[in-house]
Amino acid sequence: MVGDRPVTTPWRETIRLGEVGRPTSSGPVERRLAPDEKTRKALAKFLDLESLEALEATVRLTPWFDGAQLNGRWSAAFTQLCGVTLEPLDRTLSGDFTVHVVPANSKHAPTELEPEVVLDPEGDDPPDVLEDETIDLAGYVIEHFVLDIDPFPRAPGAEFKPPDPDPEASPFAKLAGWKGGKSQS
Predict the structure, then answer these.
(1) Residue 2 and residue 37: Cα distance in Å, rounded?
(2) Is residue 126 part of a domain?
(3) Does residue 145 lie in a domain region?
(4) Is residue 173 part of a domain?
(5) pTM of structure
(6) Domain that holds residue 40
């Protein structure tokens, strides 16, 4: 969210929670996702990348209590600018994710009133609570892709060297100038 408004990404691929198979159905739902060229350009701008040549994912949805479990695998090819030299850097990334989602009225939804918060870095995240019956698969792909992007990319060997300080710009040099260049003891 930005302020009070939710962030809207330029790519959405959704499925209704009711479409996720139940134990009596034929098995898990699997979706292959890949934005078209126009959407990749919009995503590159949205994510502050020079370009996004490819972004593909496969998401498998299975029932999980009264919600769903998403198991995803994604890969991306993109170009960033070096934070030091501004030269283009071609990058490739891939990753996996598992997310649980539940409807808003689920007894498995996390509550705000839990008396003690126990953080286990190796444990599962709490389930995401859906605002309605729609699961945005592309949103989860984008979220996990963004988490793996280097926010400060550098070209090999690039090193930031700060400019030499200007002694005339020192506040003490300015004070000395106001006093006529003489210091008093």
Answers:
(1) 27
(2) yes
(3) yes
(4) no
(5) 0.80
(6) 14-160
